[in-house]
Write a structure and sequence with these properties.
By secondary structure, the chain is an all-alpha fold. It is built from 4 helices and no strands.
Length: 67
Amino acid sequence: DGRFNTLDDVIFHYTKNLQSSPNLDGVLRQSKPELLKPNHIEALKAFISTFEDTLFFKNPELQNPFN
């Protein structure tokens, strides 16, 4: 929803600062996100960073799948 400035802020929220509320997904209510180890957090950040591959998105050969 845009309230966090960085990916680290989002991860901190969901691992250390998660507050229960009526709108909180049931999976998050039942899980233990605080159990994420530092290496899991780094792996999550590495995975999410793969969505920022601008070389892939800007490659003209991959722009139109119908060519």
